[in-house]
Amino acid sequence: MEPAEKLSVTVTPAMARMIREKVEDGSFGSVSEVIRAALRAFQREEEEHAERMASIRARVKASIEDTRPAVPLEEAIHRVKSRISQLARDNDDTASRRRS
Asked: Which InterPro entries would you find in this protein's record (predicted)?
């Protein structure tokens, strides 16, 4: 375990109240424990955000580097509408069979 370093922080009255309540209700043993838990949660959130951003960047890069021919917008819209229509027909057929 790393040696502890003492810091002084300023928080809003609402934050101070919440910290004290967590200690008073027994959720944490001290103010320091509450702050450390909050910092660990913040660190996890930052790591998850970095992972999401790396994933998005990788997908964008893969998309930019994709050598397949582009589909014109009108064709893409036509494909999506056709797929939706097909799904609706399939759903209607399934519903009809269930009623039979």
From this structure: ParD, ParD_sf, Ribbon_hlx_hlx
Burial 70-91 (b: 16+ CB within 10 A, else e): eeeeeeeeeeeeeeeeeeeeee
Give the pTM. Answer: 0.61
Residues (pLDDT < 50) of the chain are: none
| C-alpha span between 71 and 67 (Å, rounded) | 12
Element (H, E) at 31: helix 31-65
Distances, alpha carbon 45 to alpha carbons 2, 60, 76, in Å: 22, 22, 36
- DSSP-assigned letter for residue 89: H
